[in-house]
Amino acid sequence: MAFAIVGSFLSVYKVCSFRLYHSLYRQILSQERCSATPSEYNRAEQTISFEPNIYSSKKGADYLNSLFIKRHRKVLWKSSNQIALVCMALTVILLIISYLCPSKMQSVLSKWSPSFLFFMMYLVNRGGNFTEVLYMNCDYSLLNYNFFKKADLVFKLFIIRLRELIKINILPALSIGMGLGVIMYANGIGKVTDYILWILLTTCLSAFSSIHYLLMYYLLQPYTSGTKVKSGDYRILEIAPFFIFLRIIKIKTSSIFLGVISIEMCVLYYFIAIFGVRKYSTDTFRQRV
C-alpha cells in the first residue's frame, strides 16, 4: 500500500515536471484536428502562389497580411473581378435594350426601388470566401501558437483584414452603383443626386457586409480543419441579413433616406465590431476540433 502511494506521488511529480508537455500536446492536438481530405488540401494549395519574388517591406501584422494577400490574390480577387465584369456586361445589354425598347424599359425601371440594393450587395459580397481561404491557408496553422491569440495582435489583424476585405468587395459595389446610374440616366429616371447616392449606398452596404462576415469569423470561428462550418450560430447569422433585406425590398422610400440609413448602419456596426473583437475575440478566436 505504502509502495503504491509513494509511486503515485512520484508519477504526479514526473508529469508536473515534464518540460516538453506544451510542444507534445500541440502536436497531438494538431494531428487530431487534421480532418481535411486530400482533395481539400490540394484545392487549398492551388489557390496559393509560390513565386519566389513575392515579398513585402512591411513589418509585423502588416507584413503577415501583405504576404497572405499577395500569395492568394488569384482566388481572393478572381470572383470579385468576375462579378464586376458581369455587372459591366449587364449594363451594356440594358443600355442596348433601352435604345431598342425605350418605353418598355422605362416602364420596368419605374417600378424599381433603391431598397433592392440592400439585397443585391448581400448576394455579391465575398466575405465568406475570404474567411474560408484565410482560415485554411493561414489561421489554421497559426492558431496553434499562443502569440497569435494575443489581444493586441488579434485586434490589429482584424482591422487590417477588414480593410482588405472592403477593398475586394468595393469593385463589384462600384460596378453596380455606377452601372445603375448610367442606366437610369439613359432612361431619364432620377436626378444626379440620386445617382451619387446610389453609388454611396452600394459602397456602404458592401462595407457593412464585409464587417458582418469578418465579425462572425472572429467571434464564432466556425471552421474546422477541413473548412467545414460547425457553428449553428454562424449559419443563422449568415442568412439573417438575407431575410431582413427581403423585407426592406418591399419598402418604397427615397434614395436620400436609404443613403442616410445605410451610412448610419455601417458606422454603428463598425463600432459594434470593434467593441466585440476587443472584448471577446481572445476567447472566441480559436480552433475547432
DSSP, total strands: 0
Regarding quaternary structure, what we see is single chain
Q: Give the averaged pLDDT, no decimals.
A: 78
Distance between the termini: 41 Å
The sequence of SSEs as H and E is: HHHHHHHHHHHH
Query: Main sheet?
Result: none
Decide which structural class fits the backbone: mainly alpha
Helical segment count: 12
Topology:
Elements lengths: L1 H15 L4 H13 L4 H9 L13 H12 L1 H28 L1 H9 L5 H9 L2 H16 L8 H36 L5 H29 L11 H18 L5 H30 L5
Helix pairs in contact: 4-9, 5-6, 5-9, 7-10, 7-11, 9-10, 9-12, 10-11, 10-12
Structure, explained:
This protein has 289 residues and is mostly helical. The chain is 78% helix and 0% strand. It has 12 helices and no strands. Helix 9 packs antiparallel against helix 12. The protein is elongated, with a radius of gyration of 25 Å.
Please summarize what this structure is.
The protein has helices at residues 2-16, 21-33, 38-46, 60-71, 73-100, 102-110, 116-124, 127-142, 151-186, 192-220, 232-249, 255-284. It is mostly helical.
Q: Which descriptors would you attach to this protein?
A:
289 residues, single chain, 12 helices, mainly alpha
